[in-house]
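step=encode ok
step=design start
structure_in=
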């Protein structure tokens, strides 16, 4: 649109409408700038953070699985059956000297 056409439209519709269009145009430009300079880089960084977090969480899960296996193995190796424990207690009582 040529500048003379813009002026004639502004004169026909009124000065307030022209200011309103100017303000709306400024908001639109600001929104595009905000999207290009803030939102898109922020989204890109956030997605890369989530990707790195996913990899880190997979490592944590693998480590927890290994720790659980180790704890179960230690528990199984140190577990004493109850009948064996009772027998040991009886033997210790019988081995005590009586006064």
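sequence_out=
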């Amino acid at each position: 649109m040529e500048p003379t056409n813009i002026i004639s439209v502004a004169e026909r519709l009124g000065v307030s409408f022209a200011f309103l269009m100017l303000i709306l145009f400024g908001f639109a430009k600001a929104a595009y700038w905000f999207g290009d300079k803030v939102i898109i880089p922020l989204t890109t960084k956030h997605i890369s953070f989530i990707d790195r977090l996913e990899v880190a969480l997979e490592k944590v899960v693998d480590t927890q699985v290994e720790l659980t296996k180790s704890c179960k193995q230690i528990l199984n190796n140190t577990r004493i059956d109850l009948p064996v424990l009772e027998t040991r207690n009886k033997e210790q009582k019988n081995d005590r000297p009586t006064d």
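step=design ok
step=annotate ok -> The chain has one domain: 3-94.
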